[in-house]
């Protein structure tokens, strides 16, 4: 995927193209809302794409036809090829039905290489490093260590802060951590108040204690630890909702107030509830000690045992449809089963944690358990 030399890195990419018709077979334009929904679906799956307005011509035995189309060009990493192929296969079927087309054209146009700097390379991996302070040899060596471990992104689960301290003389925050056994060091400007509490994003005990103090909290490494999987990697639901007879209308909003489809709502809501289930499981509650319900006003998750006490999470939402409530429970059961059997997709799991304040919630539960 990556090739390294003394001046930079070349990254191998696969390019996919999708042709979206802008008019139906009778020459009537599809609504902008329909086109926007298609592009939103692509946008939440891939970090970026390029659009080009284009025309196509085809003819039968009697006349020539002209089509107005939108060409969507997407660059993906080779290791995501199977997921990309599956995505477009499903999208082709969906667009043929919703747009009334006999055929939707998807092509994989081949491989290409992009030249990127060391700074761009480390940024792509979500690492907060100042490469200008390193020599070319140091950058090459670090890049080789990362590339040599081909699944280093997945291994970010083993992230560990080893040094986090303030240098009062230079007014810097010094942060050292290990990712995949590779030791990294970063220095930040320290513009915070003297009594601010420093916490690494992976330091649950310290974070839990800090939350309940009336002081400023500086969380170091939040982006590198989790948000990378939210901002840099295409969206992957913890489980994919199969709607069946339920319509996929834009009938809900996400937590930021953006309109979303029913399918996306079910997947995101499932993700939030399941995250709280994980918090309780990983703070010493057995599966049988956790109760989950889903109703018209959202979901409650209750963990209860004699050692740790009782803990309640509430995920509010307006879910009037009984069918949708039942489908959410189906998705939750599927996610829990895969979790208990170590079958969850690692990227989807990390995205779930990044989207749902998993670290903060777990830190709070741990603090309350420790202080009982």
Mean pLDDT: 87
Low-confidence stretches: none
Tell the overall outline: globular
Number of strands: 15
Distance between the termini: 50 Å
Instruction: Spell the H/E element sequence.
Output: EEHEEHEHHEEEEHEHEEHEEEHHH
Helical content stands at: 25-40%
Q: Determine the structural class based on helices, strands and strand pairing.
A: alpha+beta
Beta strand %: 25-35%
Q: Please indicate the count of domains.
A: 3
Count every helix, treating DSSP H or I runs of 4 or more residues as helices.
Answer: 10
The profile of the biggest β sheet is: 5 strands, antiparallel
Measured on Cα atoms, how large is the radius of gyration?
24 Å
Q: Concise description?
A:
This protein has ten helices and 15 strands. The protein is an alpha+beta fold.
Please provide a written account of the structure.
The chain has 372 residues and is an alpha+beta fold. It folds into 3 domains: 2-116, Alpha-Beta Plaits, CATH 3.30.70; 118-231, no CATH class; 252-370, no CATH class. 36% of the residues lie in helices and 29% in strands. It is built from 10 helices and 15 strands. The protein has helices at 32-45, 81-98, 118-124, 136-148, 204-211, 222-231, 262-282, 322-340, 346-355, 358-370, and strands at 2-4, 9-21, 50-59, 64-76, 106-116, 160-167, 172-179, 182-189, 197-200, 217-220, 252-253, 259-260, 290-295, 298-305, 309-316. The strands form 5 sheets. Strands 1, 2, 3, 4 and 5 form a 5-stranded antiparallel sheet that branches. A 3-stranded antiparallel sheet has the order 6-7-8. Helix 5 (204-211) crosses helix 10 (358-370), helix 7 crosses helix 8 (322-340) and helix 7 runs parallel beside helix 10. It starts with a strand and ends with a helix.
